[in-house]
Amino acid sequence: MKILTVGINHKTSPIETREKFFLGELERELLLSELRNDPSVFSSIILSTCNRCEIYAHVDEEYQPQELLEKLFSIKHQTLTHDLQKLFYILEGQAAVTHLLRVACGLDSLILGEKQILGQIREAVLLSRQHLMMDKAFNILTNFVLETGKKARRETQIDFGGSSVAWASVCMAQNILGTLKDKTVLILGSGKMGRLAVEQLINKGVKKIYIMNRTLEKAQELADQSGGIAVGFWEMAEILPQVDVCICSSSCPHYLIDQELVEQTMQARGNQKMVYIDISMPRNIDPKVADLANVCLVTVDDLDRVVQDNIQKRLCAAGQVETIVINKVEEYYEAISKVNLIEKNKNLILSGGTK
Questions:
Q1: pTM for the model
Q2: Mean pLDDT of the chain
Q3: Taking a C-beta distance cutoff of 8 angstroms, is the pair 147, 324 a contact?
Q4: Annotated catalytic residue: which of 50, 53, 105, 171?
Q5: Of residues 204, 282, 217, the one with CA closest to residue 245
């Protein structure tokens, strides 16, 4: 048996390609079901974020990575062309294990030391358990992965100065406008990223925060907690001209803000400068918005510039984290060897008992 990883991330492809392979929860469940029906696949974890789509699988020795790719492409209704396939990396054995630990520590993130990835891995593990796709080997592996991620942040400065995508979004808006203290901001989406963005905006002392969500009750809940103002999607055209910054972290499968809407917005606000930050996956703001005068559009791929001020401390910490990862990989294989030895002895005893 062996561990395989196939994936695509911000290092191998632009956001335009990554969003084609973003897997919503239902799609992740469907892929897990497909893998569960394959007798050669014993367990699997699927990680899909704004920066990556990765499949980790415990498979038999004859299983080929191409089979994982075919299942992914089929679910996303994409044609498995050579040009697309070459954007995916394939890792096997210790290389796959090491990669997952590095991901958990934030070493492979667009924003070095990013915190949210650990929670995303935890959710992926839970989903695999719910779909009975977590065998003993992967259960041990994921325990090591989560502990390593926590250890890296507890014992080093890998996340020095802030490290979430939401934090970077607010910092980027502040860098562009100079200050946020007299600004009004619209948050599109009241999920985890939206909540984190609201927390950061409060710390920056913004004047007013509008919170917009498909379900108004959820927007109201976050507004009550933060002192913001809940608004419905149907109020978009009315609210946008009133804000200086729009941070979009929704999960809609299509654009919520298009070029025509922004043109109308800019006319209504006298063409005063406006910042749009799209941290959704797939993107929810039409890229053509960037062509308009006095409009600044920022996507996830632009956010790594924010950490330049504290990158030196993080880079120093990265070396320490790499050492933690190496040690944890060794510990994992030692643990697996002990488990395999115990299983072997059990089988020998049982075999001897039947004679």
A1: 0.89
A2: 93
A3: no
A4: 50
A5: 204
Non-local CB neighbours of 160 within 8 Å, separated by 6+ positions: 113, 310, 313, 314, 317
Measured at the CA of 126, the angle between CA 123 and CA 130, to 5 degrees, comes to: 140
Neighbours of 341 (CB within 10 A): 10
Q: Which helix (H) or strand (E) holds 196?
A: helix 192-204
Residue with tokens 């990556």: 52
- Beta strand 2-9 with 89-92 is antiparallel
Write out the two tokens for 165.
């995508």
Mean pLDDT of 71-80: 96
B/e letters for 38-61, b = 16+ CB within 10 Å, e = fewer, are: beebbbbbbbbbbbbbbbbbbbee
Counted residue by residue, the chain has a size of 355
- Residue 94 host element (H or E): helix 94-104
Separation of alpha carbons 279 and 261, rounded Å: 19
| 203: its two tokens | 């710390």
Q: Is the pLDDT of residue 355 over 60?
A: no
Is the CB of residue 261 less than 8 Å from the CB of residue 289? no
**Residue 238 near residue 252 (C-beta atoms within 8 A):** no
Please report, as a single letter, which amino acid is at residue 194: G
> Is 246 designated active site?
no
